[in-house]
Amino acid sequence: MTEARSRRIAFEVPEGLKLPPSELEQRLRIELALRLYKKGIATLGQARRIAGLSKWDFLELLAKEGIPIHYEEEELKEDLEIARRLAGTKQK
After folding, report:
1. Angle at 42 between CA 62 and CA 55, to 5 degrees
2. Per-residue confidence band for 1, with pLDDT thresholds at 50, 70 and 90
3. DSSP letters of 5-20?
4. Which one, of 78, 73, 25, lies nearest residue 50 by Cα?
5. Which pTM was predicted?
6. Of residues 20 and 71, which shows the higher confidence score?
7. Alpha helix locations (H) across the chain?
């Protein structure tokens, strides 16, 4: 599995959003991740990293939001690699 590269982006948010300032960044990250995933722009792994959530927490959030899971070939490869490592076997 390769290390994920990322880029930091800053943008302005208008005042007056109905969110406590302490929750603003995390909430925007989650909303962005959900939207990008739903539109097929981000994979499950990318979206959960944007949201700052574990895979299982993000899957739970998708279910809560009624967003279907898109299981791509890359996610399957990642899951198989993790399963192999946990089982103590090497890839053939």
Report:
1. 45
2. very low
3. P---------TT-SS-
4. 25
5. 0.72
6. 20
7. 24-38, 44-51, 55-65, 73-87
